[in-house]
Amino acid sequence: MNLLVAIDFSEITGSVISSASKLAAALDAKVFLLHVIPPATPVLDTDTGIESFFPSVQHDTGAPQESPAESSAHQELQALAEPLRKSGLAISAHLAHNDEVQAIVDAAGRFVADLIVLGSHGHGALYHLLVGSVSEGVVRKSPCPVVIVPASVK
Fold this sequence. Notes:
The chain is an alpha/beta fold. It is 38% helix and 20% strand. Helix 3 crosses helix 5 (134-141).
């Protein structure tokens, strides 16, 4: 059995990983830990510093350069995965770039997930109206069952 565990490094991440590790142990499942880096929002993610108008000289080596956000996310993913590996779970950690819902659904297909585990932040109705909910979007589009860990689970 394959579990896809989507995390966002928020305060609920520990609860999601704890719930997923219990499921994985009980089901003898392989865990695919996934963090999604969403595309930049032009208005919110624009660098307004003077340096952005005077880019430094960069030498293209042909190899893709890992951004600071990717490097940080990669390190944090590995830090979260290591204790699970030491506990005996089969786990691999992955980064994806895309809209969160689409990236999770795509990863479920790529890893042939039997179950997706993710958290819900418990935002109010106005937030969901304006921004939407990743967990709701995944439930609607998922090719497999979805377990949503509520924000209140410790």
